[in-house]
Specification:
Aminopeptidase; seven-stranded mixed β-sheet; 2 domains
Length: 327
């Protein structure tokens, strides 16, 4: 178990393992991610040899809602082993010890989105593939999309002119009532969108900018949170959150919000994720998004307790990209 005051040494270990040195911003990010998380402080194990840290493993706490039940979970996130100590089973031993620890604490589920390199190791340790996260894609300007895909010029970050910084939008006095209206009573696993959660997840995160728009007319409204990034030669806008009032007028409000995002963004394409049978899925379809199921990251999980709903079936999840994107 990591001891109090070991954070600087752990950060030095991670920096040495991945050959990166990003200084004070890394500490701020660590504190935000592992200490300020509204779901709880991250459990952390370290491997030590002769007083020197050689490995570290962390899980990020999360709570999924299924109907009226809170499912306590963790996400397998940060891990590092010093290069000269790799190949000795440190990663596997730390991971399995941490699995046993959180299971004793009452955690029911572990999930993550491993890359192709780390996937085999997780499968050997008892994880199972849920599937690829099904993305929905909307090219913004098809001609520019094709030209930029073929261009050798490095792209710039996409700009937002129709959205505001997320912290400003979260201050809207109408938002709490809207969030209560759109909270699903769904048996599928989903994250409850509270203001504290949204502030932590999108406004307080260091060195990353999210943008938002919230429109409300009468009893119908729509709320979107997005960020821009460069992926290869293309400029991508990722819709991390899309929430709409569950009514026809709410779906229309969502369509209007997305139309403004598409009109004012200079991205090459926009990516989103929504569950079937939801008003958010209706918004994406009406806004011209098309399914791209093979483009999303792999999603894996491991059950630690008996659950009413099978977490190894993607149809039992109601996720947004913001729940699962790497951060």
């Amino acid at each position: 178990m990591a001891r109090a005051g070991e954070t600087p040494a752990i950060l030095d270990l991670i920096a040495a393992s991945y050959h990166r040195h990003d200084g004070p911003s890394r500490l701020r990010y660590w504190q935000w991610k592992h200490e300020a998380n509204p779901f709880g402080v991250s459990p952390c194990l370290v491997a030590e040899v002769n007083g020197r840290l050689v490995g570290v493993r962390l899980f990020l706490r999360w709570i999924w809602k299924s109907g009226t039940t809170n499912v306590h979970a963790v996400r397998a996130v940060d891990t590092a082993t010093l290069p000269e100590w790799r190949g000795r089973g440190i990663f596997s031993r730390l991971t399995m010890q941490l699995v046993e620890q959180v299971q004793r604490e009452g955690v029911s589920l572990i999930f993550n989105t491993p890359n192709n390199k780390s996937m085999p190791g997780y499968l050997k340790m008892g994880w199972a593939q849920v599937g690829r996260i099904p993305l929905w894609i909307r090219p913004v300007r098809l001609g520019n999309f094709v030209r930029r895909a073929l261009s050798a010029a490095p792209p710039q970050q996409p700009a937002f002119t129709g959205l505001q910084p997320v912290a400003r939008v979260l201050g809207d006095s109408r938002l709490p009532a809207f969030l209560a209206d759109v909270a699903p009573s769904d048996e599928r696993y989903h994250t409850v969108r509270t203001l504290p959660y949204l502030r932590w997840r999108y406004a307080d995160i260091p060195d990353m900018t999210y943008w938002a728009r919230f429109d409300m007319v009468g009893d119908a409204g729509a709320f979107v949170i997005a960020r821009g990034r460069v992926r290869g030669r293309l400029r991508e806008v990722t819709i991390s959150e899309l929430l709409v009032t569950p009514s026809e007028r709410g779906v229309q409000a969502g369509r209007t919000v997305l139309a403004e995002l598409l009109r004012h963004s200079d991205a090459d394409y926009v990516a989103a994720c929504s569950a079937s049978g939801t008003p958010e899925r209706s918004v994406l379809i009406r806004a011209g998004f098309i399914p791209a199921p093979r483009l999303g990251p792999h999603f894996t999980a491991r059950r630690l307790a008996t659950l009413t709903l099978d977490p190894l079936q993607w149809d039992n999840w109601r996720c947004a990209i913001g729940d699962l994107e790497l951060f």
